[in-house]
Amino acid sequence: YLPESLDFLIARRPANALVRINRLAARLGQPALRELPVALSAPTSGRGRLAQLLSPDSRRTTLLIWLLFFLVMFGFYFVMSWTPKLLVSAGLSAQQGISGGVLLSVGGIFGAALIGGLASRWRLTRVLSLFMLITAGLLVLFVGSASSVSMALGLGLLIGLFANGCVAGLYALSPIVYDASVRTTGVGWGIGIGRIGAILSPTVAGLLLDSGWQPLHLYGVFAVVFVIAAAVLLQLRPKAPAQPAAQPSQA
User: Fold this and answer.
1) Does the global pTM surpass 0.85?
2) DSSP one-letter string for 197-217
3) Which of 33, 76, 104, 232 could form a disulfide bond with 160, CB atoms 3.0-4.6 angstroms apart?
4) Tell me: the pLDDT tens digits for 76-85?
């Protein structure tokens, strides 16, 4: 039941685009159009969209989005994949380790909703960078939490909340920075690059453990990843949405 966006309908001009735009206009209490508005950008396809992502105008934004997805998913999947095992290695029981993993997921339910609510009032980049820094701080605190089961589980809930919020925030951020003609391609490539981080993350954690790292000390390493992600995010400057040309007043 979710209608297609006006940006998409105007830029890509699918079948019955004018009918669909007028249907949206009627729901918004606006007059119907007799013809499609002039598209702000010409539609591209296939390799053309990827080339547009890496064009001089978009290359910096694209590379920053790719790096953000890689870093956040690199840190996120370490937390989700290794927490139950590392809690047990640090001295908790198997049941307590499982409970810690469950609380990460429970926290994620609220994290996505929380960042959505905050981003509706404040700029998303600021909210998202704050989530990244809070996640880093919680991971540092988690290093010393093994002595208290309740503290470890409570921090696990909060880490799940804010780490999941970081991922949800990236999904919301990436469509903002791209024009409608390449938006799905831009988001898709960002997610794909992020999955590389998701694959490498558990492997890197395993290699560090094999080299003699203490289990909980890994959280300090991955806290740095979220700090770097916050610094990268501050370099991203989403473009302001294009304003339509002023229409002459009707006599």
Assistant:
1) no
2) HHHHHHHHHHHHHHTT--TTH
3) 104
4) 888 888 777 7
